[in-house]
Amino acid sequence: MLNWITDTISSLGYVGIGLLMFLENLFPPIPSELIMPLAGFTVARGQMQFIPAIAAGVLGTVIGALPWYYAGKILGTERLQQLADKYGKWISISSKDITKADRWFERHGGKAVFVCRLVPGVRTLISLPAGISGMHLVPFLLYSTLGTLLWVGLLTYLGYVLGDNYELVDEYLAPVSKIVVVTLLIAFILWVIRKNMRRYS
């Protein structure tokens, strides 16, 4: 993975950064925690400029968020409610739960998109509920861009500062991503258990 990322950035430059960050949003196992620090290291070596590198990463990320956003748009709340009523009983999700989640996202959607863009493990996934809830494209792009700018800027700066040791960024942040995903999974399982206990009590 590292060799492929390195070769892509070396051969394609800023376009390579944008392409990798685009793919990272479609296929989360490709880590931004490795792409942008490598870009920062390349900047430190004088082979790239700092601002264009960040701009390429932000652009690739925001464009990469759109397929998930439009997938959510196509699925939509009504379709999701139908699926929940039909199959949701297996995981204790009903159309009412979908409606509650949709209302919550209407109130906090912008903040949710912004904050989740800074959280490893969920930064890609937030585009899906944004689309499902019908969040307008302009605010979605605005909050996505702001959150992504902070995230990409931080990773690039860390790579610039760490130099040859830029891989340490991924080494320390990769476990964080796993912890976040596992925590969310456990929280969901506990929520399902509690709903089932209330139903049969």
TrEMBL record:
Membrane topology qualifier: Multi-pass membrane protein
Main location: membrane
InterPro entries xrefs: DedA_domain (IPR051311), VTT_dom (IPR032816)
Signal peptide (UniProt feature, chain positions): none
Annotated ranges, domain VTT: 30-160
Cellular location(s): Cell membrane
Keywords from the UniProt entry: Cell membrane, Membrane, Transmembrane, Transmembrane helix
Domain of life the protein comes from: Bacteria
Cellular component GO terms, alphabetical: plasma membrane
The UniProt record lists the keyword Ribonucleoprotein: no
Spans through the membrane: 12-30, 50-71, 140-160, 172-193
Pfam families: VTT_dom
Entry similarity comment: Belongs to the DedA family.
Protein name, UniProt field: Alkaline phosphatase
Organism whose genome encodes this protein: Chroogloeocystis siderophila 5.2 s.c.1
Source taxonomy: Bacteria, Bacillati, Cyanobacteriota, Cyanophyceae, Oscillatoriophycideae
